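Anyone able to model this chain together with cobalt (II) ion?
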Amino acid sequence: MFRRRDRIQYKTPEQIRKMRAAGLVVAEVHQAMRESAGPGVSTAELDRIAEEVIRSSGAVPSFKGYDIGFGPYPASICSSVNEQVVHAIPAADAVLEAGDLLSVDVGAIVDGWHGDAAITIEIGEVAPELSALRAACEASMWAGIRAAATAKRLGGISHAVEHSVEHSGDYGIVTGFGGHGIGTEMHQDPHILNYGRPSEGPRLRPGMALAIEPMITLGSPDTAELEDGWTIVTDDGSVAAHTEHTIALCEDGVWVLTAPDGGVEQLGELAASAARGE
Ligand code: MF3
Ligand code: CO
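re: yes, here you go
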C-alpha cells in the first residue's frame, strides 16, 4: 500500500468504502451539532452529544486520548469559538452566546479506518462579516476539493484554496496548520498547505485519501498556543473559521467521504461514481 518513493498510504476501493462508513458517522455528528449548538449551550454539552452519537454508531472517537506528546486529548470534539482557530477543548464554562462563530472538528474510527471533518456554525445571529468569513472558508474548502479532481499535483489543491480565499476577501490564511493524508491513522502524509503552487508536491493518484481543511481569519494569519497545550488562537484576537472534509480520490472522480451526499451536489460531474452509489 506504500509506494517506495513516498509514505502515502494508497487505499483500495474496498478500503475507501470502509472510510465512507467512518465519514458518515462524522457527518451524523455534524448534523447533531447543528441541531444542538445555540446560545446557552456549553461546548462540554456538545462534546457529550458527539460522543454519544459516535459510540451509538459502534464507532470510536479518534480525538479522545489522541497524544502528540503532551498528554492525551480529553474530548471527542474540538470546539473553537471566535478567536480560537482549532483544537480548543470543550468545557462546561464555555457557554455559547448569540453572535459567536463556533467551529466543531470531529473524528471517528470504524473498523480501523478514520474520518475527520469540521464545520463552522453561526450561533444565533452573527455579524455579517463573520457570516462572510464562514462562507469564504467553506468555499475555499470546496475549491480545494474540486482541484483534487482536476489538478495533477497536491500543490494544485493548496493553490486552489489560496486563490479562493483571496477572491473572497481580505482574509488571513493560517499557515501554521493544514490538511493531511488520512486512513488507518488520523494524520498521515502528505501535509497539505492551504497556499502554494500547482507544480509542487506529490502527484495526485487514485487511492489517496486526504483531509482538506482551510483555516482563515478576519485579521492576521499568525497564531499562538494557549497554556493548555492544545488551543490555537489568532495572535491578534481576530475571529477565525475552519472547515474540513475527508475525501478519497477514485479512478473516476472524488468521493467526499464526510459529506452526507458524498459531495455530489457540490462536485457535479467531478464526483466519483461511487459517491452516487453506482
Ligand atoms: N481534526 C484535527 C485535524 O484535522 C485534529 C484534532 S487534534 C485532537 O488535524 F487532538 F483533537 F485530536
Ligand atoms: Co484534520
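Residues 36 and 46 are 7 Å apart (CA to CA).
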